[in-house]
Amino acid sequence: MPSPKKSPLWGTNPHPLLTLDEAWDCIAHAVSHLDPVPISTEQSLGRVLAAPVPATDDYPIFDKSMMDGFAVRSADCQNPVTELKLAGVIAAGVTEKTTLPPGNAVRINTGAPIPAGADSIVRIENTTLSPDGLRVTIRNVVKPGAHLTRRGQHARRGDILLAPPLLIEAPQIAVLTSNGTTNVSVYPDIDVGIAVTGDELVPSGAPRAHGQIFESNGPMLAALVTQFGATPHSVGIVRDNPADLRSKLTSALRHPVVIAAGGMSLGTLDLVPNAFADLGVEWQFHGVQVRPGKPVAYGRGPNGQHVFGLPGNPVSAYVCAWLFVRMAIRGLQGHAVRPPHRWKAMLTREVKAAKDNRPAFVPARVWNTDADGLVVEPCGWGGSGDPFGAALANALLVRNDPTLVQTPGCQVEVIFISKEM
Fold first, then answer.
1. Strand, coil or helix: what is 15?
2. Residues 325, 257 contacting (CB under 8 angstroms)
3. What are 156-195's pLDDT values in tens digits?
4. What is the C-alpha separation between 34 and 44, in angstroms, rounded?
5. Residues 376/332, Cβ–Cβ less than 8 Å
6. Domains in the chain, start-ordered, CATH in brackets?
7. pTM
8. Is 386 exposed, middle or buried (0-12, 13-18, 19+ CB in 10 A)?
């Protein structure tokens, strides 16, 4: 039998270069959700539900009208035209219980409780009120149960209305408040420390000397962390010297998740891995067979922090945040710890073969068509140092084997990175 294929070695002190699946498995085994906390319903938007929410009562809590019209007994309205006595009006919010006698109708508003004895609602468009307002003519045969909602039709007391893990958005807020739920159990907000390294970096808009560039990874990663449902905390630009590295990485390690961008490769000033190690971080992996993003690293801090070292090129940092950081944040929030979901789309133009066989994630645009469903086209993109071309993307085109040509019309995998498409 052939011997199993060994992972290639990489780094100054050679160590295995993990496959994507190995890196994902490593994170999945290390991440578990945080302990839930109580929070008011008003403050729960954007949080992840941690405990089931049972119905506190039947919903609706009374038989109610779904239309403006007339509550009737269907047995009274089996002819194409029926005239009934008008016994009054029931508006939404009326608390007095009433009974509808045979041969009568009651004018009723949408959402109002249906009187005992009535079993149908006739829409106002199918009726004519007499000039004196004492009688109403029904101009259709009425079926039992028309245009009304019975008590408990949507939910019964004790039914589970919302089950975890579930992101609380506007519809969930409507359910919670309709249920009278004033407090819910959610997973804690995730605080993420962000550090970016490099002597060449200056804040955006500040004066630049020759060889300096505006710092973009920090704001980009802060935006991504917010998009992932967590809270970013920047420690600022970290200079390439031991004192600044120790000081600012120590600040970043005050948070349960830490992202450092830059200084992770093999250059003379790639000091971040050792600086973190000196602070008690144990690296679980450093280097993954992926493009862009080969130098990505993941470790655990002295207090259990989840520490990510990302490459300094902006698109590499962006892709690695989507592939690795997001799954850790979602796992801490109570979701399943897994890589981003992939969708099928039809490729619109040829993607040439590459020499590098590492799985690649290419900025691309996806849109929906009537004829072909989802279609995808790679962006005009100049590589991991080109955030301008990548900014046109709303998805990542997945190239599991970039050494193969991908032809127009073939089915490919994509990862959505934007709600806009």
1. strand
2. yes
3. 999 999 999 999 999 999 999 999 999 999 999 999 999 9
4. 16
5. no
6. 9-19+190-332 (3.40.980.10), 37-59+154-186 (3.90.105.10), 64-149 (2.170.190.11), 343-416 (2.40.340.10)
7. 0.85
8. middle
